[in-house]
Write a structure and sequence with these properties.
The protein has 197 residues and is mostly helical. It contains eight helices and no strands. It has helices at 2-26, 86-91, 100-113, 115-118, 127-130, 150-153, 157-166, 180-195.
Length: 197
């Protein structure tokens, strides 16, 4: 009988410890200012060395600008599927003015995320297509879309934002890698590439 009481007490004690740790992780008990429990720590908290100096220049200040009348407002998950482009195409408008700063930020981010597939000129002949050595029986990666084509030019800014957020065909979503500000800056830079054609 006494052994059963000890076992129940031990299980209850372990349960309370687990509950306490869960509450600490959820911020119920603010023990640490930025504490969070990482069950499987990955690459999220590593120090990154970047050669584009994005954070060392005034480019990071764009993030402080309010995105007036922007939709959606920083969701964790983008709410539209790739094929659900009608609403974004109709309602989303670029809230950022086309300035030297937004274009420069867009260029830096484009070079970081888009060049591997779309190349520096946006024509879809990036290194993933041109510099990968294929074996005899391999087909290779299909050519990405030409961002300077008439078809892409005719897409609205909202549609380009949607493609960056939800992905399209083989292109995956960048919603977890780029903020809304970053995506709108890239849209501005894509328009610059189209005008330079």
């Amino acid at each position: 009988m006494l052994k059963r009481v000890y076992i129940c007490f031990f299980i209850s004690f372990l349960g309370l410890i687990c509950l306490f740790l869960l509450c600490v992780n959820l911020g119920v008990f603010p023990i640490y200012k930025n504490f969070h429990l990482q069950i499987i720590p990955d690459m999220d908290d590593q120090k990154k060395i970047s050669t584009d100096f994005l954070s060392k220049s005034k480019l990071h200040q764009i993030e402080k600008y309010p995105l007036k009348d922007n939709f959606p407002l920083f969701p964790i998950f983008y709410e539209f599927e790739p094929q659900e482009f009608a609403v974004p195409e109709r309602l989303f408008q670029n809230p950022l003015k086309k300035t030297e700063l937004t274009i420069l930020r867009g260029k830096v981010l484009y070079n970081r995320f888009c060049v591997p597939c779309h190349n520096v000129d946006g024509k879809g002949n990036g290194p993933i297509v041109t510099q990968v050595t294929l074996k005899e029986d391999e087909e290779g990666f299909p050519s990405p879309k030409d961002l300077t084509s008439e078809n892409t030019r005719n897409k609205s800014d909202g549609r380009l934002f949607h493609i960056l957020s939800a992905g399209q065909n083989l292109m995956f979503s960048f919603n977890d890698k780029l903020s809304e500000t970053d995506k709108w800056c890239i849209v501005h830079y894509i328009r610059i590439l189209q005008n330079d054609k």
